[in-house]
Design brief:
Layout: H1 3-18, E1 27-30, E2 41-53, E3 61-73, H2 76-89, E4 94-97, E5 111-125, E6 137-149
Parallel strand pairs: 1-2
Antiparallel strand pairs: 2-3, 3-6, 4-5, 5-6
Length: 151
Amino acid sequence: MLRERKEDLSIYYFIVDLFADIGDFLNVVDGFPLEGLEIPTLSVEARSIDTAKWELGNRTRVQFRTWYIDVFAKNKSQRDELAYRLLNGLEACIPVYDYDEGFPPDVSPTELGCLEVEDLKLEIIRVFPELVDKLYYRATVAFVATYNQLT
């Protein structure tokens, strides 16, 4: 499995753990929900990878990866509570695990490094009642992170 996919999975499981106390009440999905949206839901989606040269005379590049976490909630208070918890949780370095060894809860994979959040943003998304069958509240937490390998 490529390191980028391990990063995606690490963020997914990091968010699952962040909301473990309300796990039965909240859906966390890997990717944008296309059908059967159950509210409340958090969807985790990798958005882009930008690279920049890291050292002079070296071909090594650093990756700046962007992720979006979409919040779908029943009301404003629920949306805000989920989004604010995400903002506070993403302040820490996000561990990246070797999922070639297996997946939780059956296996506790080895930590390879961490994703350091460089930029973090919350955006409220207006959902117009005339455009949807069921009114719900949305927000997007976007962040840019760089991978830092353990030595």
